[in-house]
């Protein structure tokens, strides 16, 4: 056993960010993953640095839309009915979040976490020679109807109260920013603080290479349990092996729940599968990320093409993907982006780690200070990765953290 080693379980962007901040402080770091270079949510995300997103998924009004969404076989929300019994505790907690006091508490915590993003992300990108990959062009949220825009006004007002700049635009003003948009767009909101990376896969792969070059060990294996001893932490691997060190960090995304359970910590965590298609030659020019408010999907220009993505499917980690959902997103996109060329599109699906309150789990296990959690970031893994890495490094160094971690404790479950 390496007595000073810090073991990180998970080589997604959150795990790599934790490794980056720890390596920057000369810690001995080992990252365990079944396939470090394999396809994961860190590759197929929408590339957004969504610092403006501080409203939990279960916002007022959403709960009552769920039945209609579930009845639409290709709508924005899907449930594999065989998974419904396992999902019930998660869904019951989700239904409680829309209370006003909970909404205010959660949005404040998300705004606090997201507010640190650039302070932590910019140094991480610079350390890895990736500063030029960040595009600070803002994002555009568009609406088909004035009615839908007015229904969302409370969200924009709440964001403003948290210091987020929101510029309301007419349909013609939106098309001045993004001429590819059709006249179906009647209203829009421009959020200049939003940014994006040019290619999520490139970011992940470059960080992986740089960490290896800095001496971070990348160990192939599937973690199945964590054991805590008085002076060490041990990660048990499928097939009978194990890795021990001074501390362990669980950053395994949607696969983190059984690892927490292995030490007796309960967490409500579900896989929220997302879908997208990347169009290498889209035939139109899109400058920045566009969020289609009513239809719950996005379009992002990245180096490899125009990525059309969204959907939320709850079916567990082992169900096969339904790529018709990626096709449905393209059908929706045609109405907003006439002239879209779909030839040679590359489809993808991946598992977002979703908590019912939209808050990630960050902090010590209540059972041992040798185990730290860093998972459950939902749609905001890329956005919150660097700050999560900074917080994990601060926790390990026994420094005061830059934000209050109480809202993110696993003990809330």
Automatic annotation (TrEMBL):
Molecular function GO labels: oxidoreductase activity
InterPro entries, sorted: FAD-dep_OxRdtase, FAD/NAD-bd_sf
Alphabetic keyword roster: Oxidoreductase
Keyword Oxidoreductase: yes
Top-rank lineage group of the source organism: Bacteria
Family annotation (SUPFAM superfamilies): FAD-linked reductases, C-terminal domain, FAD/NAD(P)-binding domain
Cellular compartments per GO CC: cytoplasm
Domain spans labelled FAD dependent oxidoreductase: 5-394
Pfam families found in the cross-reference section: DAO
Protein name: Amino acid dehydrogenase
Species of provenance: Pseudooceanicola lipolyticus
